[in-house]
Q: What sequence folds into this?
């Protein structure tokens, strides 16, 4: 008699089971995606605790909305969409607007960025450099408007294609392209016009641009 | 000016989302223009920096926290429905009371209960009726408007059944049974025999055994089976399995997908005709551009056909085989069998006195309400008397 191992069946089959109220099947979906959804929420909210709260809310909302999931998009894309909305809603609720105009010289934010780059006197240079770079990028991401940060995270951290981005964000591919372009241009401005240290970090990572 | 247009394409260039043509254009420009080359390199490093961020570990206990919330939610819907209808229920109750009172006062007999069908589960709440369904409607005799709202029709008794009888009915049927049995393994074997007997199979089965207690009691087994049986044997199988033990819960649902099924078939046929036409056009196409265009269209239509086929396969599967979910658990022996007679008597006595107290409280309230006017007057008189006496004393 077939004893089903939940680990071996597809997302779609798990979704079908979960729709019928099989919470074990949904648990397997959580196991498959918790890492990705948590990382998205963490970078989106800027703080691991908020990230965990939002990731939990995202899974719960997904469970409630499962009946409405028709399978037009893949489950993962749909889940990213749910999680994105949860984060955006919360950020909007808090009234935190990270809107940073491209024309404005970003003085205060840049100052902050500079001040918090730690001194590199001690420790193995490479480790420190990596950690420095991460902190820097994390902070720079936080300075982007919410929807710009979201598109960068979905593309560069989660690895969605442009088509998937359009589905996850609910907007046409053209919008995805231009938003991503603007978001990266802003990041570039933030990261490369900062302290000399920051530029050095970037140069250390440099791989000649295009693949 | 040209530089700006090129830079628009940098992001898709880095993401490998450009056509070959566009790619070549970007590369050509960057070879000639130092500024843009520098810009592209910088953008590339930024992308690398973001991608190079190490992933953060999921906090401990995250999944169990999520699943606790999910389990709670999974049990919630019934309560929610009840809550949603509370207002409605109150109005209905009030109406009933008024009507009842009226009928009683008027001395009229209550109308005999109308023949309400025992189960109204076979509804068509989710039957999709799309534009392409027209092909199907033209085949049936009934006017289109009547078919458009199958759910309403059924309520109005317009005989959608008769119309649909022209087609083979497609109904998804599910049963959920919760059974308490003496011996788990024995019941399990018998269920398998029943299912095999009608040509069905076990789709999934899980079971667990309780940890035995300190005195060796417990060690009960419980489990969950998902069975698939041919639809024509659905009722008999449910009946037979239900009789294997103490039936604690039984839920049977049906979803009529007949309309959706034939609608999908019509759409599929349309798409196939379209594909045929496109193939003919392709055979006559002259320029490369034309061929590319037709091929793109062909790919789209093929994708559509595959979606319809997939959905039809699914519907065929779930309508020819019904699903029976059985939750089995072994009956637990009474934990405190010391003196069940005494215990029962105690609980009854306890309940009775609570009830008596509530009754008394109710009576007291009614009495208070009735006596309120009198009490108010008495209180006023008493106050007046005290003031009068106080003044007299001074
Ligand atoms: Zn240029």
A:
């Amino acid at each position: 008699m077939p004893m089903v191992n939940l680990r071996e069946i597809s997302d779609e089959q798990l979704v079908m089971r979960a729709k019928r109220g099989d919470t074990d099947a949904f648990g397997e979906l959580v196991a498959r995606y918790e890492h990705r959804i948590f990382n998205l929420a963490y970078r989106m909210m800027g703080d691991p605790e908020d990230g965990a709260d939002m990731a939990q809310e995202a899974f719960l909302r997904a469970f409630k909305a499962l009946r409405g999931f028709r399978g037009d998009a893949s489950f993962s894309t749909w889940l990213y969409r749910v999680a994105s909305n949860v984060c955006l809603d919360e950020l909007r609720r808090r009234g935190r607007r990270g809107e940073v105009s491209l024309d404005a010289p970003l003085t205060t934010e840049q100052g902050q960025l500079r001040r918090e780059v730690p001194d590199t006197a001690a420790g193995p240079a490479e480790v420190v450099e990596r950690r420095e770079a991460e902190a820097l990028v994390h902070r720079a991401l936080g300075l982007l408007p919410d929807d710009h940060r979201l598109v960068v995270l979905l593309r560069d951290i989660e690895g969605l294609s442009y088509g998937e981005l359009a589905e996850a964000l609910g907007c046409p591919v053209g919008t995805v392209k231009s938003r991503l372009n603007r978001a990266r241009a802003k990041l570039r401005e933030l990261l490369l016009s900062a302290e000399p240290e920051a530029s050095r970090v970037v140069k250390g990572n440099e791989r000649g641009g295009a693949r | 000016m040209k530089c700006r247009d090129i830079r628009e394409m940098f992001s898709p260039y880095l993401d490998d989302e450009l056509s070959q043509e566009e790619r070549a254009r970007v590369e050509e420009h960057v070879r000639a223009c130092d500024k843009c080359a520098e810009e592209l390199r910088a953008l590339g490093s930024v992308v690398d920096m973001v991608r190079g961020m190490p992933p953060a570990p999921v906090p401990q206990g995250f999944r169990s926290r999520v699943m606790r919330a999910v389990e709670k939610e999974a049990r919630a819907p019934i309560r929610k429905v009840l809550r949603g209808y509370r207002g409605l229920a109150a109005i209905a109750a009030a109406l009933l009371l008024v009507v009842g009172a009226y009928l009683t006062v008027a001395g009229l007999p209550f109308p005999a209960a109308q023949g309400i069908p025992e189960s109204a589960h076979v509804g068509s709440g989710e039957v999709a009726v799309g534009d392409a369904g027209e092909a199907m409607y033209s085949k049936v005799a009934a006017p289109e408007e009547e078919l458009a709202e199958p759910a309403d029709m059924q309520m109005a008794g317009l005989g959608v059944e008769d119309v649909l009888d022209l087609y083979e009915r497609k109904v998804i049927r599910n049963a959920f049974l919760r059974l308490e049995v003496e011996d788990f393994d024995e019941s399990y074997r018998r269920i398998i025999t029943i299912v095999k007997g009608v040509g069905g199979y076990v789709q999934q089965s899980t079971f667990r055994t309780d940890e035995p207690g300190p005195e060796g009691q417990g060690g009960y087994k419980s489990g969950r089976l998902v069975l698939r049986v041919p639809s024509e044997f659905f009722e008999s199988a449910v009946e037979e399995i239900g009789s294997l033990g103490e039936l604690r819960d039984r839920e049977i649902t049906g979803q009529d997908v007949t309309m959706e099924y034939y609608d999908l078939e019509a759409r599929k046929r349309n798409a196939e005709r379209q594909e045929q036409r496109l193939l003919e056009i392709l055979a006559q196409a002259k320029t490369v551009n034309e061929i590319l265009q037709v091929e793109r269209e062909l790919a789209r239509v093929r994708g559509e056909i595959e979606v319809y086929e997939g959905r039809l396969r699914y519907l065929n599967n779930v309508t020819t085989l019904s699903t029976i979910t059985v939750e089995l658990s072994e009956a637990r022996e009474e934990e405190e069998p010391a003196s069940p007679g005494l215990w029962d008597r105690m609980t009854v006595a306890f309940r009775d006195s609570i009830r008596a107290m509530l009754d008394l409280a109710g009576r007291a309230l009614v009495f208070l309400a009735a006596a309120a006017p009198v009490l108010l007057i008495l209180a006023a008189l008493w106050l007046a008397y005290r003031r009068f006496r106080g003044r007299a004393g001074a």
User: Anything to note?
Assistant: Residues 340-393 of chain B form the longest helix (54 residues). Chain B is about 60% helix and 15% strand. Residues B 3, 6, 29, 33, 35-36 surround zinc ion (CB under 6 Å). Chain B touches chain A through 48 residues (CB under 8 Å).
